[in-house]
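Title: Request for sanity check on HTH araC/xylS-type domain-containing protein prediction

Description:
We are preparing a figure and want to confirm that the structure record we downloaded matches what your pipeline produces today. Could someone re-run it with the sequence below and paste the raw structure tokens into this thread? We only need the token string, no images.
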Amino acid sequence: MNRAIQPLAISTSPEKSLSTLVENRRAYTYDTCELNVFETHEKAENVGLVFNDFVFTSMLRGKKIMHLNGREAFDYLPGESVIVGPNELMQIDFPEAENDKPTQCIALAISQQLIDYTLELMNEKNPKVLPAEGWAINPDIHHIINNQELINTVDRIIRISTSEQTAAKDLYVDLALKEMIIRLMQTQAREVFTSSYQKLANHHPLAYAIQIIKSKIDQKIDFDKLASAACMSRATFFKKFKEAFGYTPAQYVLNERLELAKKWLRKPDCSITQACFNAGFENLSHFTQTFKKETGMAPSKFKKVHQQKIASAAN
């Protein structure tokens, strides 16, 4: 029940300006990328789309069904992004698109030269924890649930493209793109370490730290001991953790506790107070405020909405 984190809204095209009802395209072209805005105003199937460059896409409105080479088809919804390699065919279905409810998606085609430059810079200035590791975009993690840090960079590119009137637009976009590439890699790293921390814990200090956090999430976390377990000073541990994942160990602990609290709140016989302390929060007021800030609703409302969904499904 996470809030969908979508890029900045872009107005749909007036009907008279549409050149086609299926994947009508507006483009903003720069030295190192091209921002495309695609709209589809009628149902369609097996629409093919290919880019010569690496592409980061993100849904704004409606629903697509994506068919990527060698992968199982999946629903593509607002709050999600998909990355596609150069010259990789996307076959797309639009099962719900209508004239007054179009599907809208951005596709950001990025030059390989800029990607390589950013990776080289990160590997030189901010090397990863293990010598054998290197910064890279993982093509296997192609379907992404958006986070605010990643989408903030996309928003800047959209704002520059649709609002800025300056000769420095290419420079602004270039800077935002470099950060976006880094945020994308951090997002992918979160996915890898969250899903595989147990396999990685024996040889990776950050995975070992995550394993400890997860095993003690309902207890008080001692970050000095956590850093020591990862064989780092506290300062180095916080620095490397944030570089790898885009947030600090303290922010990671908070996110894990919120997810655990949601699991408890979904239980019919679990009270708000029980969910608070079972998830490792020490103060009910702080828990309520934090939960509302991060999820957009109070714990009591979250629980009520979940119960209504269960009841609705049962009927």
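Thanks, this matches our download. The two ends are 21 Å apart (CA to CA).
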